[in-house]
Amino acid sequence: MRMNTTYTSYVAVGDSFTEGMSDGLPDGSYRGWADLLAARLAARTPGFRYANLAVRGKLIGQIVDEQADPAAAMGADLVTLVGGLNDVLRPKCDVEQVCGLLEDAAGRLAPSCKQLVLMRSPGRRGPVLGRFLPRMEELFSFIDGLAARHGAIVVDLFASEALGDQRMWAEDRLHLNAEGHRRVAEAVWQALGHEPEADWDAPLPPAVRPGWAARRASDARFAREHLGPWIGRRLTGRSSGDGRPPKRAELLPYEG
């Protein structure tokens, strides 16, 4: 690992996790761990530049087709690549094909930057996660080997008990909340060799289980506001990212 390396530019590649859902800002936009990381790096380096090509809902094939080459062409010092989880969480998935596409993306990005960062994505602990665990483990094992081949850093977020805690997740049960994103930014910061500013994997206090009525109300709200629309998009072949431009399409000076 490069310790205390100075990065003058950063490009983030990925899906909703890297776009920053659901770390909401007052104007309705999202911040997220990549923005938080860029802000920290910019504070250390005058003229620091940042681009975030991530778009919610993107599958790994779309990330390769739409983001990999533009990101590589930017020639940034630092690149983060996180993708494939949207694929493995679908009812049908060819994990071997997903891994091949990740290999393609890493092969384009690694030669273009000083440091490529990959991740074992966090997972919300619960019965739904268990259904997809074998696929995720296969994907994460491949990512470990991919990193070794390309000299990339792997940030293991999935192993974190804290990030798996349901209190770190938004009401949609698919995306981290603000505290979850803050911890991810700290994890990447430390993986890059910087001095810790906090314990990103610090345990949460014991949870207080909500009452029956509160749980049923939460389940009903989740089904109405999140699960129903998600099923509708799946049935009609639509994605939440259809027609949506990249979050920050150009490598420009960062201004917090």
UniProtKB/TrEMBL annotation:
Pfam families named among the record's database cross-references: Lipase_GDSL_2
CDD domains (alphabetical): SGNH_hydrolase_like_1
UniProt xrefs under InterPro entries: GDSL_Rv0518-like, SGNH_hydro, SGNH_hydro_sf
Source organism of the structure: Streptomyces lonegramiae
Keywords associated with the record: Hydrolase
GO molecular function, one term: hydrolase activity
Protein name stated in the entry: SGNH/GDSL hydrolase family protein
SGNH hydrolase-type esterase domain ranges (all copies): 12-183
UniProt keyword Lyase present: no
EC id: 3.1.-.-
Keyword Acetylation in record: no
